[in-house]
Design a protein that fits this description.
Layout: H1 11-21, E1 25-29, H2 43-53, E2 58-62, H3 78-95, H4 99-124, E3 139-148, E4 154-163, H5 164-171, E5 179-180, H6 181-197, E6 208-212, H7 214-226, E7 230-232, E8 245-248, H8 250-260
Parallel strand pairs: 1-2
Antiparallel strand pairs: 3-4, 3-6, 5-8, 7-8
Helix pairs in contact: 1-2
């Protein structure tokens, strides 16, 4: 109604245009019938009848007991109260499901059940088309660089192999909610450092500045995305935040849990003495 004072058009044309643009028409009826239009019925009833005439999906909320509504929030005249009762009766009659609607509801309910079953399956299985991609225990050769020694420091470039499950497990917890690409790259650098430091063959003095090769980082990121384990986050952020963010898919979350959760040790029961 706040649109009316600023408009020179017929009020009813504005109302109809607003309803046309809506996905649903939601009706809330309390203790008042509403302002009467030129046709002798309230604008609210005119709106409702128009929404029905164009097959606009409608949702109606009616007060359970209008008699309990305070007098200053109810129709004052008997004529108004009668019009309200008739309008409520019209709404209830129109909202009763017919046979076709009942079958449609049953069909939709079955479809929801099928989608929920499919969703549960997707959570624990790899997406279709990934069976030909490197994954699991298969290894990927990672290139890296570091500096070592005292002044002057020296640079070293080398490689090591890691299984895809180990690569994913190393960074997956960061993406339970989401992580920036910059922070994800840093996590892979930490993964490289941890792997090299535990390698007994690397006898370097004061190794620092571990960095995964940028090209290999991009390849790993794309591979995890192709495997259906991670996806780009679509969360709305400040216009000043131009970084890309990554998060786990449902399948990725399930695989992370299976890879990182601590399994219970077998309970050994000895002979009774």
């Amino acid at each position: 109604m706040e649109l009316f004072p600023a408009a020179n058009e017929n009020q009813w044309l504005i109302i109809k245009r607003v309803i046309d643009d809506c996905d649903y028409y939601v009706l809330i009826i309390g203790g008042r019938y509403g302002s009467i239009g030129l046709e002798g019925i309230s604008y609210t009833e005119m709106e409702y009848r128009y929404a029905l005439s164009i097959d606009k999906p409608t949702i109606a909320f009616l007060h359970k007991d209008p008699g309990l509504i305070p007098a200053n929030k109810s129709e004052e005249s008997e004529v108004g109260r009668e019009k309200l009762r008739a309008f409520r009766a019209l709404i209830r009659a129109n909202e009763l499901p017919d046979r076709a609607a009942t079958f449609e509801l049953l069909r939709l309910r079955k479809q929801v059940d099928e989608l929920e079953t499919e969703l549960r399956r997707v959570r624990t299985t790899a997406p279709q088309g990934t069976e030909n991609l490197a994954q699991g225990a298969e290894e990927f050769t990672i290139r890296y660089s570091l500096t070592f020694g005292l002044y002057p420091r020296e640079n070293l470039s080398a490689t090591f192999k890691a299984a895809w499950n180990n690569i994913f497990a190393a960074v997956a917890p960061l993406m339970i909610h989401e992580v920036s690409e910059k922070r994800l790259k840093s996590a892979f650098d930490d993964f490289v450092e941890a792997r090299i430091r535990e390698d007994a063959e690397q006898d370097l003095e004061d190794p620092r500045d571990f960095r995964i090769d940028e090209s290999d980082f991009q390849t790993i990121k794309i591979q995890l995305r192709a495997l259906g384990l991670i996806t780009r986050s679509e969360k709305t952020r400040s216009v000043k935040d131009v970084d890309t963010y990554w998060t786990l898919t449902q399948y990725g979350d399930d695989l992370m849990t299976r890879l990182r959760a601590i399994k219970r040790s077998p309970i050994l029961i000895g002979p009774q003495l």
